[in-house]
From TrEMBL:
Gene3D superfamilies reported for this sequence: Hexapeptide repeat proteins (2.160.10.10), Spore Coat Polysaccharide Biosynthesis Protein SpsA, Chain A (3.90.550.10)
Name of protein: GDP-mannose pyrophosphorylase
Domain of life of the organism encoding this protein: Bacteria
Occurrences of domain Mannose-1-phosphate guanyltransferase C-terminal (ranges): 251-345
């Protein structure tokens, strides 16, 4: 059986996080605060808890932020190397690009935006038992069209890899975590952009490589959209999603140091309130992700929304399924619903944007 201490972890964190704009204009997606910690802290702690010690991060967009936060990794009990693509190489190019930094014969490759409870030891064992060249963690989802669809035969051997197809033959999808034999990585073409999903996996299948699936039913969520980010954060707060990085009591809300919550404010649905934020009297926050330094005025209602650093939500404003950029100022009684996104620093005057006609 493979010893996790003899496995490298590779984390792909070079994407631009476009679906989470405008929050990702100032921070890369894997660094956005999730239950009070940069998202990657949850993944890194999970990797450390599994006994893997060496991590290579494949960075590109806002590359410098990762090293300033995690340094050499020693605080998490890890040794972290950073490999930066000047021009993003795509998921396959990024894996090929870290090959020179691998120390072992087996690598665990992770998408940097997935919240998961999968047992990494069991995934490695499955890879060994199947004598696979590559093993893909697979999960079942309600709508596979936004993911890589991965059918397998009755022995668990992958028969196709169909990235984001409108006509998925199964509800089994790529969960964004792979075990690679080192020599398979060494053979990925270097120095040009390519997609692991659209080129490398289909190419390996066509060449007759043994690609296997490891299916489980543990917690799983891709955090790449506002809706999923809000759900994943709330699940961490409520203890529905596992994370070795979170200790102590989990409950309906999580309020960080230096935040002020006025009497009569209601915090439910896995709401998280960042450091130094102020929540006014009678405000109602249900599944809200409130970054550091935000001010929510009296009587405001925030449901399933993300409020960026230092933004202000005026008295009796309503934000539902919205994303408010850093430093934006939403005037009193404004209503922002159904996927509304406000860009950083934008001010909307009192009553200046409404979905209803009452005054
Ligand atoms: N280094 C590097 N360079 N990283 C990249 C690049 C790149 O050029 N492009 C994307 N990444 C990173 C992103 O930062 C992210 O952590 C990860 O690769 C996956 O990219 P996403 O943009 O989040 O992909 P997706 O969610 O649309 O689809 C992927 O994940 C699904 C599961 O969550 C695919 O792997 C699907 O097949 C899969 O089902
Ligand atoms: Mg993703």
């Amino acid at each position: 059986m493979t010893n996790p201490a003899e496995v490298d972890a590779v984390i792909l964190v070079g994407g631009q996080g476009t679906r989470l704009r405008p929050l990702t204009l100032s921070a890369p997606k894997p660094m956005l605060p999730t239950a009070g910690l940069p998202f990657l802290t949850h993944l890194l702690s999970r990797i450390a808890a599994a006994g893997v010690t060496h991590v290579v991060m494949g960075t590109s967009y806002k590359a410098e932020v990762f090293e300033s936060e995690f340094g050499d990794g020693s605080k998490l009990g890890l040794q972290i190397d950073y490999v930066t693509e000047t021009d993003a190489l795509g998921t396959g190019g990024a894996i090929a690009n870290v090959a020179g930094h691998l120390r072992h014969d087996t690598a665990l490759v992770f998408n940097g935006d997935v919240l998961s409870g999968a047992d990494l030891g069991a995934l490695l064992d499955s890879h060994d038992n199947h004598q696979a060249d590559v093993t893909l963690h697979l999960v079942r989802v309600g709508d596979p069209r936004a993911f890589g669809c991965v059918p397998t035969d009755p022995d668990g051997v992958v028969t196709a890899f169909l990235e984001k197809t409108q006509d998925p033959p199964t509800d089994q999808i790529n969960a964004g975590c792979y075990v690679f034999k080192r020599d398979v990585i060494d053979r990925i073409p270097k120095g040009r952009a390519l997609s692991v999903e659209r080129e490398v996996f289909p190419g390996l299948l066509a060449d007759g490589h043994r690609v296997c699936g490891y299916v489980d039913a543990s917690y799983w969520r891709d955090m790449g959209t506002p809706e999923d980010f809000v759900r994943g954060s709330a699940d961490l707060v409520r203890g529905i999603a596992p994370s070795p990085a979170l200790h102590g009591q989990r409950g309906e809300s999580l309020v960080h140091d230096g935040a002020g919550v006025a009497p009569g404010a209601l915090l439910i649905g896995g709401t998280v309130v960042g450091r130094g934020a102020e929540i006014g009297a009678g405000a109602r926050l249900d599944g809200a992700v409130i970054f550091d330094g935000v001010r929510v005025e009296a009587g405001a209602v925030i449901e399933r929304s993300i409020i960026g650093f230092g933004a202000r939500i005026g008295p009796r404003a309503l934000i539902r399924d919205g994303v408010i950029g850093d430093g934006a100022d939403i005037g009193a009684r404004c209503e922002l619903l159904r996927g509304a996104r406000v860009w950083p620093g934008v001010s909307i005057p009192d009553g200046g944007l409404r979905f209803s006609t009452d005054v």
